């Protein structure tokens, strides 16, 4: 996702209209963003199988909160231009990827209450 956001920023910085490139980037971004949900759900269920329903609800809520915050942030930044908005979006994706990398190897199961 960070790579597609960086590519969007570069495309916007060229200040040329390239709808085919934008469409390909949008498709890549969509695939990257929605393909992360099943692995994340698997990861959560593996960590605490007894709490799976609660974890799925919290995960879905977190996704929707992220969508809302992203929309609000985009609304505030839209006047700054596409290049700035895409750069900030890519920069916001980096901490998420870092967190994923740091926690990826953890397989500790949480015992039920």
Concise overview:
The chain has 5 helices and no strands. The protein is mainly alpha-helical. It has a domain of 34 residues.
Describe the structure.
It is built from 5 helices and no strands. It is mainly alpha-helical and 113 residues long. It has a domain at 1-15 and 83-101. α1 runs antiparallel to α2, α1 (2-13) runs antiparallel to α5 and α3 crosses α4. The N and C termini lie far apart (36 Å).
Write the layout of secondary structure elements.
Layout: H1 2-13, H2 19-34, H3 37-47, H4 52-77, H5 82-103
Note the main attributes of this structure.
113 residues, 5 helices, mainly alpha, 0% strand
State the separation between the terminal residues, measured CA to CA. Answer: 36 Å
Query: Strand portion, in percent?
Result: under 5%
The total of helices stands at 5
User: What structural class do the secondary elements suggest?
Assistant: mainly alpha
Helix content: over 70%
What pattern of helices and strands is seen along the backbone? HHHHH
How many beta-strand elements?
Answer: 0
- Compute the CA-based radius of gyration: 17 Å
Unreliable stretches, pLDDT < 50, 5 or more residues?
none
Average of the residue pLDDT scores: 85
- Strand count, sense and closure of the main sheet? none
